[in-house]
Write a structure and sequence with these properties.
This protein is mainly β. It has helices spanning 21-26, 369-375, 389-392, 395-400, and strands at 16-18, 35-40, 44-45, 58-76, 84-89, 91-105, 111-113, 116-121, 133-150, 154-158, 161-166, 170-175, 178-187, 200-204, 207-212, 220-224, 227-237, 241-244, 247-250, 257-259, 262-269, 279-282, 285-288, 293-295, 298-305, 313-317, 320-323, 329-331, 334-340, 350-354, 361-363, 366-368, 386-387. It starts with 15 loop residues before the first strand and ends in an 8-residue tail after the last helix. The mean pLDDT is 91.
C-alpha cells in the first residue's frame, strides 16, 4: 500500500511488504517480541528523514530482493546506531545500503554498523533448551562513511555490523557480505596499554567485534566469502585501537571462523591529536581475545604513516595482529603489506611488523616479502613465511605448498 501502511500479515507465507521510506519507518511500530517476515519490493529512499532514528530491537527476517536502501543518514550521541539499533534474525538477505553515520559513542553498548549496531543470530536471551538453529545473513552490501568518537571503555564499529551477539544453540553464518567505504576513529577514554575484553575498542570492515555470553553453549559464527574495501582513518586517541580488515576483534564466548574473505585496506595514520596508546592493525583480524581461525583469506594492506601528532605505539600484521588466548591458526592465506612514511615521521618507540600475525599458528600462509621490504627496513616477525611476488602469483607454487584451487 505504501505511505506507511503495510500490506501483508508478517508471516513467512505472507510477509509485510515494504514499498517506500514511510513503510520502512512503520516497521518500528511492530511488536518487538514476535517474529516478523519483511520483503522489499522497490528501492527505498530514506532521505525523507534528515536524521534517521535507528529501529530498536526487533525480530525480523528480511528479504531485500536485491533492492537498495539509500539516503540513510544518522547523527547520534547515544545508543547503538545503524538502520537497526539491534536486529535479531534467522535470515536477512539480498540488501544493498548506502549510508553516512556520525556517532559520539558514550555507552559500553554503543555499537555502530550500517545494517545494525548489534546483530543477534536468533532471539536475544535464548534458552539453552531451545532447539538448534541456523541464522543466515546473506548478500548484504554496505556503502558509505562512518565517523565515531568513542568515549566508553568498550565500543565496536563495523562497516556492516557493529557487534555480533551469539545465543545458545545458534550457528550464525555471515556469507557474501561486503563493505565499501571509510571508517574514521577517535577514542577519548583512558585504557591500559594491552587490550582486554573488559576494555575493547575495535573497528572492522565487516564486523567490529564478535561476542556472546560466556556461559552459553553450542554457539558458532562463520564469516565466509566476505569482501571489505575500507579506508581506516586514525584520528587520535587515549586508548588502544584494534583494527581489522574483516573483523576488529573477538571478544567473549565466540570463536569465529573467517574463511574465503578478501580485504583491501588502507590504514591512514594522520592524527592531529596524539595517540597515547598503541594501534593494533591486522589485514583480516585486529585482535583475538578468544580463539579464531582464519582460512583461505587474502589481505592487501596499505599503511600510510603520516601523523601530525605523536603515536605511542604501532603494531601491524598482514592477517592477524595479536591474540590473548587460544592457538588462532592461520591456514592457506596470504597478505601484502605496503608501508609508506611519506614525510619520514619518527616511528613510534613501541612498534612491530608481523608478516602474518603475532602468537598464531601458521599453516601454509605467506606474505609478500618483496613489497614489505620496499617500505619497512626493520625486523619482521614470521620472516620464514615471506615469499616473492612471483611465488604468490603462481598457482603451481601455491599448490606445491598444499593449497587446493577449486573451479568456479
Amino acid at each position: 500500500m505504501a505511505n506507511g501502511i503495510l500490506s501483508g500479515s508478517g508471516t513467512q507465507a505472507n510477509p509485510y511488504i515494504v514499498e517506500d521510506g514511510w513503510d520502512f519507518d512503520a516497521l518500528r511500530n511492530l511488536p518487538a517480541t514476535e517474529w516478523q517476515w519483511i520483503e522489499l519490493v522497490d528501492d527505498i529512499n530514506l532521505a525523507i528523514f534528515p536524521n534517521w532514528i535507528p529501529i530498536p530491537s526487533k525480530r525480523f527476517n528480511i528479504n531485500g530482493g536485491g533492492y537498495t536502501i539509500k539516503g540513510l543518514r544518522i547523527v547520534g550521541s547515544a545508543g547503538s546506531l545503524g538502520l537497526f539499533a539491534q536486529l535479531e534474525t534467522l535470515e536477512t538477505k539480498d540488501l544493498r545500503i548506502e549510508a553516512e553515520i556520525i556517532h559520539t559513542a558514550a555507552g559500553t553498548s554503543d555499537f555502530v554498523g550500517i545494517l545494525c549496531g548489534r546483530l543477534v543470530g536468533g532471539s536475544f536471551g535464548a534458552l539453552s533448551t531451545d532447539p538448534p538453529r541456523t541464522a543466515s545473513i546473506l548478500n548484504i552490501q554496505c556503502f558509505g562513511n562512518i565517523t565515531v568518537t568513542a568515549t566508553a571503555s568498550t565500543q565496536a564499529t563495523g562497516g556492516c555490523f557493529g557487534s555480533t551477539w551469539g545465543e545458545a544453540n545458534v550457528t550464525l553464518q555471515i556469507v557474501n557480505c561486503a563493505y565499501y567505504g571509510s571508517i574514521s576513529y577517535h577514542i577519548t577514554s583512558s585504557s591500559t596499554t594491552t587490550p582486554s575484553a573488559a576494555q575493547l575498542r575495535a573497528c572492522g570492515g565487516i564486523v567490529g567485534h564478535a561476542e556472546a555470553r560466556a556461559s552459553i553453549a553450542n554457539y558458532s559464527i562463520t564469516l565466509a566469502n566476505c569482501i571489505s574495501v575500507t579506508q581506516f582513518v586514525m584520528l587520535g586517541g587515549t586508548a588502544h585501537a584494534l583494527v581489522g580488515g574483516i573483523m576488529g576483534a573477538t571478544r567473549t564466548g565466540a570463536a569465529p571462523n573467517i574463511t574465503g574473505c578478501i580485504s583491501k585496506n588502507r590504514l591512514l595514520v594522520t592524527n592531529i591529536l596524539p595517540w597515547t596508546q598503541p594501534i593494533w592493525f591486522g589485514g583480516v583480524l585486529g585482535a583475538g581475545m578468544v580463539s579464531c581461525t582464519i582460512s583461505m583469506c587474502a589481505a592487501h594492506n596499505e599503511v600510510i604513516f603520516n601523523p601530525s601528532g605523536s603515536v605511542a605505539g604501532m603494531n601491524i600484521a598482514g592477517l592477524h595482529c595479536m591474540r590473548s588466548t587460544g592457538t588462532n591458526p592461520v591456514n592457506a592465506s596470504y597478505a601484502v603489506i605496503n608501508f609508506t612514511n611519506p614525510n619520514n615521521a619518527d616511528l613510534p618507540v613501541t612498534r612491530s611488523m608481523r608478516g602474518i600475525g603475532g602468537q598464531v599458528v601458521i599453516n601454509n600462509s605467506f606474505y609478500d616479502s618483496q613489497v614489505l621490504a620496499e617500505g619497512w627496513s626493520e625486523a619482521v616477525t614470521n620472516p620464514e613465511w615471506g615469499r616473492t611476488t612471483a611465488q604468490l602469483q603462481s598457482q603451481t607454487f601455491l599448490e606445491s605448498q598444499g593449497w587446493v584451487f577449486a573451479d568456479v
